[in-house]
Amino acid sequence: MRTHRKELWFNIPTRRAFLNITPQVEVCLRESGVKEGLALVNAMHITASVFINDDESGLHRDYEEWLERLAPHEPLDRYRHNLTGEDNGDAHLKRQVMGREVVVAITEGRLDFGPWEQIFYGEFDGRRKKRVLVKIIGE
Amino acid sequence: MRTHRKELWFNIPTRRAFLNITPQVEVCLRESGVKEGLALVNAMHITASVFINDDESGLHRDYEEWLERLAPHEPLDRYRHNLTGEDNGDAHLKRQVMGREVVVAITEGRLDFGPWEQIFYGEFDGRRKKRVLVKIIGE
Amino acid sequence: MRTHRKELWFNIPTRRAFLNITPQVEVCLRESGVKEGLALVNAMHITASVFINDDESGLHRDYEEWLERLAPHEPLDRYRHNLTGEDNGDAHLKRQVMGREVVVAITEGRLDFGPWEQIFYGEFDGRRKKRVLVKIIGE
């Protein structure tokens, strides 16, 4: 069994954003030499998500507005978590809706995807360095 | 290490539905010959889900109504994604709540489930052929 | 390839609670002897979650209130599922928001976590014995 590990680092200049990280995950997969197995891709921070959906800017704006309705950033005192001095209570909730991780099948050395599947990093509390873990196992 | 891959195809006649796919996943597991390992089951489309919950028709109607409240199908112009000519903006949101994938333990050649766990395909934009990937690794 | 399986049992005295189970998962990992691989941690019940987030009591109260807004426990007749004689319709919905499972990378014999990641059992219909499955594969 082979395993391969890599961290992808980001410094998103805005509080929230969605970033297509499929090309970086494909580079990890090539580096791993794994032809058959599984790739785990997870946010290492608890105010960010990794998820799979469509690379369409209108959809991303829909997600942004929808998440803001489900878990508004303000007023800050809406969240007890913000009593700790943080202002990211909403980000911990948004991340649960969008998810922490994806597991992707690897077949014949490629990410085994349907026609529109792309991997995104979802940032809900940016403006600082944060990272994603890629762990590949297989042979 | 053994791996096994199979696609399950569906053509749901309605826009939305929940389908118990546990028997098909069990067939894949028997075909794989894997006794100890992991099974990944994921929607290959971004307007559908794979999730684990109860096979109870009242619950499924509760899910349907709840998701429709969280992300209504209409009015279509509620979603920027629909400006692309699609009418499935809501389906991309519903899928995030219900999830893309499940990972299931395989123990002694069986899906290692609690008493009520069943695997479902959740369709949110049906009336066309779509598929689920089953990828099994182990030995 | 090595595999290791363990059930963690809980009997939460209240209907809802969040419990940090990271120490128990770390014990499983040590028992497994796996140095490189993946750990699957999943609720074996469909009214409970396993998720990764922050061990901060204010955040947990935010989750509690937020989930109660998204899927209120009462009135019980809000949910068709409760017509079966159950009173846990809401719990099946809350569990979908928080998720069934996490998959965690294992690197150099440790859970490969970012600075604040902790694994939680989320109970939404407690006051009885329920369990979580830990399945570890790797070498």
Question: What does this 3D model show about the protein?
Answer:
The structure is a homotrimer of 139-residue chains. Chain A contains three helices and eight strands; from the N terminus they run E-E-H-E-E-H-H-E-E-E-E. In chain A, strands 1-8-3-5-6 form a five-stranded antiparallel β-sheet, with helices on one face. The first copy, chain A, has a three-stranded antiparallel β-sheet with strand order 2-7-4. Helices cover 25% and strands 37% of the residues of chain A. In chain A, a hairpin with a 2-residue loop joins strand 5 and strand 6. The N and C termini of chain A lie close together (5 Å). The first copy, chain A, is of the alpha+beta class. The first copy, chain A, is elongated and about 50 Å long. Chains in contact: A-B, A-C, B-C.
Q: What's the short story on this structure?
A:
With 139 residues, chain A is α+β, with helices and mostly antiparallel strands. Helices cover 25% and strands 37% of the residues of chain A.
Task: Indicate the proportion of strand residues of chain A.
Answer: 35-45%
Kindly provide the radius of gyration of chain A, computed on alpha-carbon positions and rounded to a whole number of angstroms.
Answer: 16 Å
Please give the largest β-sheet of chain A: 5 strands, antiparallel
Oligomer: homotrimer
Q: How many angstroms separate the termini of chain A? A: 5 Å
Structural class of chain A: alpha+beta
| Average of pLDDT of chain A | 98
Number of strands of chain A: 8
The largest chain-to-chain contact, stated as pair and per-chain residue counts, equals: A-B, 33 and 32 residues
Strand order of the largest sheet of chain A: 1-8-3-5-6
Q: Tell me the helix content of chain A.
A: 25-40%
| Sequence stretches where pLDDT stays below 50 over 5 or more residues of chain A | none
- The arrangement of helices and strands of chain A along the chain is EEHEEHHEEEE
Summed up, the helix count of chain A is: 3
* Net shape of chain A: elongated
